[in-house]
């Protein structure tokens, strides 16, 4: 939820800077002039103090990043700005990522004034990164809630609410790799077995059969293969291992034996018949 104060500020400033950017693009201004516009946008649109929060030419190991956002002595963003007429390229991104990695700053903004790209650095070996969001400022509609929320991720007010971290975490969880790993996880396979058993009037299906069909006939191969898929699968395994270990450690309960079709059939025959759910009333 974007605070009203932020929404009001965006309502006043977005249209103004869309005009400024259009004029700058028509004139094809250079990088230095684009940086000046970006600084004004950081203050008037994104809510940073132009003199206290925004640092120009931030030193990084003998070289300089165009801008940095520094609040309470902590660098929140490294910002690499290019001329408004330049398309943002991989080489520009690599430069920005290198600056941030060398400074230990996990958040990077790459912009030419019109396009604003927010990246999160993963301090792995080698260094990796995630594109968290991309904003075309010329297409922002201040009356559109989704547009406002994207801009809010970069606002000063969003820092205190961990808006960028929460949005990034959602991206990491709600994606095809994690969903694919969940679908092939023991919990979901067990749920599918139960539903198939009900649907087929008690016919038993092995979890491996279900997993084989899902992996080979339902899910796309790129969801299950590659580095991102492997990381998602490892994350899901760690989560289930942790969630099952905690209650057993607390109670001293031993690991249950794996269910087999034979034991499952016995449990079905011993179980009382299911009762029908009561009818719902309006």
List the helices and strands and how they pair.
Layout: H1 4-27, H2 31-44, E1 54-60, E2 63-71, E3 74-81, H3 90-103, E4 107-111, E5 115-122, E6 128-136, H4 145-152, H5 156-160, H6 163-173, H7 176-183, H8 186-199, H9 207-218, H10 221-224, H11 227-251, H12 261-270
Parallel strand pairs: 3-4
Antiparallel strand pairs: 1-2, 2-3, 4-5, 5-6
Helix pairs in contact: 1-2, 7-11
Description:
There is one protein chain. The protein has 282 residues and is of the alpha+beta class. It folds into 2 domains: 157 residues, tt1808, chain A (Alpha-Beta Complex); 78 residues, no CATH class. Helix content is 53%, strand content 16%. It has 12 helices and 6 strands. It has a 6-stranded mixed β-sheet with strand order 1-2-3-4-5-6, sandwiched between helices. A hairpin with a 2-residue loop joins strand 2 and strand 3. Helix 1 packs antiparallel against helix 2 and helix 7 packs across helix 11. The two termini are 33 Å apart. The C terminus is likely disordered.
